[in-house]
Amino acid sequence: MATKVVERKPLSLAERTFLPQIVSGLRVTMKNMFKAPVTLEYPDERPDIPPGYRGVPTLVKDPNGREKCVSCQLCEFVCPPKAIRITPAEIPEDAETAHVEKAPEEFEINMLRCIYCGLCQEVCPEEAIFLQDIFSVTGTSREELVFKKDKLYALGGTLPDSHFKWDKKKADELAGNPHH
Amino acid sequence: MVTDSLELVIKAFLVIGAVMTMAGYAVLLERKVAARVQGRPGPNRTQIPILGSIPVIGTFLTRLGVFQPAADGLKFLFKEDPLPGHVNKFYYVLAPMAAFIPAMLTMTVLPFGAITDPVTGATSPLVLADLDIGILFILAVSSLGIYGIILGGWASNSKYPFLGGVRASAQMISYEIALGLSILPVFLWFGGSLNLFNVVQGQSQVWTILVQPVSALIFLIAIFAETNRLPFDMPESETDLVAGYNTEYGAFKFGLFFVGEYTHIIIGSGVFVVLFLGGWTLPFITLPAGLFGAVLSVLIFLAKVFVIVFFFMWIRWTLPRFRYDQVMNLGWNKLLPLALANLVFYAIAIAVIEQLN
Ligand code: SF4
Ligand code: SF4
Question: What ipTM score was computed for the predicted complex, to two decimals?
Answer without folding.
Answer: 0.73
